[in-house]
Design goal:
By secondary structure, the protein is mainly beta. It contains 3 helices and 23 strands. The strands form 6 sheets. The protein has a 4-stranded antiparallel beta sheet with strand order 3-4-5-6, with no helix packed on it. A 4-stranded antiparallel beta sheet has the order 7-8-9-10, with no helix packed on it. A 4-stranded antiparallel beta sheet has the order 11-12-13-14, with no helix packed on it. A hairpin with a 2-residue loop joins strand 8 and strand 9.
Length: 333
């Protein structure tokens, strides 16, 4: 039974499970996925949530109805340990807010010049270490990252540093980021994972065995994972693990060919599967199929299982969600 269900037993259980010290110690795991859905031939989008089991009522309200009406038309940009980074259009400006669907808390980020230009936004939050979060804006000139601006919920201010990753550091908007060991990690279009700490003082490049342009970075069982789908090689999936974090050696843990992942009718479709998430505790990888089904693949048993199918609708932009019940804001909005 999850911590969320225990909170529903009584007021005393609610008080106990809401204690900040317990929330930091009680580790939560992947609970489900937010996703968008659109009917064929329509442009109207609707946001939904499916549990990771594919069964039962959504554990959170996917409409985020606790947000003010002016912020309802939002997009979920990123998620980190229970918090969501959302972007929305407000008149002629694009703004960001961070919210917690489990506690119904939210905060609008102050404006900064970087929001008006080309940038990529990422969220980092580790409740076991701190109740404060940070938002990273990768400032770009065309596609190249020229600087990084960070918002801290502790100080309520933005900090900017010029990039020390060198020239031609390209990080695409769709690239996943990972917050690990107090450091942010991003995959680039080159053959490296670039990292920077929260204070923008330590910059580093971790070489990878291949170009990370179609790669997926994730965190599982306390280690950094790098997954690559080679669409030009019968959709060969390789799973690498950085065994020693301070080093640069990636170890190949799994190798899977497309015929193990796809039905026979899908073998000729080069991009019939898209990497979506890595389970934080188990040897599970999640994919999204072309029409929107989300499936899991067990790396140990090599069994593929469909978790959710949108039926006649098309689903896309799945965002993995791990709940957090820590009261990270002192006052409600």
């Amino acid at each position: 039974m999850s911590l969320c269900r225990f909170k529903c037993l009584s007021k005393s259980w609610l008080a106990l499970c809401s204690d900040p010290a317990l929330c930091r110690k009680a580790h939560q795991t992947l609970s489900g996925f937010f996703y968008n859905r659109v009917t064929s031939g329509q442009t109207l989008r609707s946001r939904h949530f499916t549990n990771v089991s594919g069964r039962g009522r959504p554990m959170v309200d996917p409409s985020l109805s606790f947000l003010p009406s002016s912020c309802r038309n939002i997009q979920i940009i990123d998620a980190s340990n229970g918090l969501l980074l959302c972007g929305y259009a407000k008149k002629y400006e694009y703004e960001y807010l961070v919210c917690n669907p489990a506690t119904l808390k939210w905060i609008v980020l102050p404006e900064t010049d970087a929001m008006q230009g080309m940038h990529t936004a990422s969220l980092c939050f580790e409740p076991a270490e701190s109740s404060h979060f940070r938002v990273f804006l990768l400032v770009k000139d065309k596609l190249e990252v020229t600087g990084v601006q960070v918002y801290s919920s502790k100080t309520g201010a933005w900090t900017y540093r010029q990039s020390e990753w060198g020239d031609n550091c390209i990080i695409h908007d769709a690239a996943k980021s990972v917050f690990f060991n107090g450091i942010m990690h991003f995959t680039t279009s080159g053959s490296s994972v670039v990292v920077v700490d929260m204070e923008l003082n330590r910059w580093r490049k971790i070489p990878t065995p291949y170009s990370t342009n179609s790669s997926f970075i994730g965190l599982s069982q306390g280690r950094l994972y790098l997954l690559r789908c080679d669409y030009n090689n019968d959709y060969h999936l390789s799973v690498w693990v950085l065994e020693e974090y301070g080093g640069e050696e990636w170890i190949l843990k799994h190798s899977v060919i497309k015929s193990e992942l796809c039905e026979p009718s899908q073998l000729k479709s080069p991009r019939s599967l898209a990497l979506t998430a890595v389970h934080p505790e188990w040897n599970l990888i999640f994919f999204t199929k072309e029409h929107g089904d989300i499936v899991s693949y067990d790396l140990d048993s090599r069994i593929m299982q469909t978790i959710f199918s949108p039926g006649p609708y098309k689903a896309y932009t799945y965002q993995p969600y791990i709940p957090c019940f820590l009261e990270w804001l002192s006052d409600g909005q």
